[in-house]
Design brief:
Helix content: under 10%
Structural class: mainly beta
Protein name: Ubiquitin-like domain-containing protein
Oligomer: single chain
Strand order of the largest sheet: 8-9-10-11-12-14-15-16
Largest sheet: 8 strands, antiparallel, barrel
Organism: Durusdinium trenchii
Number of helices: 3
Order of helices and strands: EEHEEEEEEEEHEEEEEHE
Shape: elongated
InterPro entries: Ubiquitin-like_dom (IPR000626), Ubiquitin-like_domsf (IPR029071)
């Protein structure tokens, strides 16, 4: 194996014993830079390829990483923790439990008091534990202006917004926390900062509520950070991004997040 000058090889610290709900143990090696989320992803791969996948709500479906809880002693390990920095050593036992987590694509066409505005918000929860949120907003009055002026840019003139936020999902009970690791925004957002985390809650298998930022607030006068309800599309389990079309930007480029 080769590494660039700026990279260092992962140093294996040892092997962990993962205790599952059926009493069986799974052995996983871990390195000095391994995070809890990295361990969950490797563990999930083992469950997927195993002869007896976990049963979730009566369905033979291995749950996403966001539904996994790894408990060390009495502490629930957080996804961004580096295992070696939190007292985990060779031979330790971690207990694997599952919570309920959203999976698939949820969306919402947002209605406002202004009939001339339109918003589509989509949240794609992947098997790997990540979520990608896409928001498209338009001030429909601008359509006539675009037809009249070929060089009119709706993003620079405050009549269209497109933004994407991507990161791992942490689930505590029904509460969701999306840690934004990458984002991309088109349009005028004035004083609306790029979020570091996005909060939410899981209402049921087909419904989530998320607190999201909206550029259209400069037109509608509403709060820029608002709670909205998104509903699941007809059964479509995704591994975001499933295709480049799922993250296509205006002009044909692919969203880098």
């Amino acid at each position: 194996m080769f590494w660039s000058k700026s990279e260092s090889p992962i140093r294996i610290l040892g092997t962990l014993r993962i205790l599952r709900s059926n009493g069986e143990e799974t052995l996983l090696s871990f390195g000095d830079t391994d995070t809890v989320l990295a361990l969950k992803r490797r563990l999930r791969e083992l469950l997927v390829t195993g002869s007896e996948p976990e049963l979730v709500t009566g369905k033979e479906l291995t749950p996403p990483c966001s539904a996994m809880r790894l408990i060390f002693d009495t502490d629930v390990l957080l996804d961004n923790w580096v295992l070696g920095d939190h007292g985990v050593v060779d031979g330790d036992q971690l207990t694997l439990v599952f919570s309920h987590a959203p999976l698939g694509k949820f969306d919402c066409v947002l209605e406002t008091d202004d009939p001339d505005t339109w918003t589509l918000a989509t949240a794609s929860f992947a098997q790997e534990g990540d979520c990608c949120i896409s928001i498209v907003e338009e001030d429909m009055i601008s359509i006539d202006i675009e037809d009249e002026y070929d060089e009119y840019d709706p993003y620079l003139n405050g009549s269209k917004w497109e933004h994407w936020y991507n990161g791992p999902v942490e689930v505590t009970g029904s509460q969701l926390c999306i840690v934004v690791e990458s984002s991309h925004r088109l349009g005028l957002f004035d004083s609306i900062p790029e979020p570091g985390v996005l909060l939410g809650e899981m209402c049921d298998d087909a419904t989530v509520r998320l607190q999201l930022p909206f550029g259209l607030s400069r037109v509608t006068g509403e709060e820029p950070l608002r709670w909205i309800t998104l509903r699941k599309e007809e059964r479509k389990i995704c591994s975001y991004p499933s295709t480049d079309e799922d993250r296509r930007l205006p002009g044909g480029a692919v969203n880098p997040v």
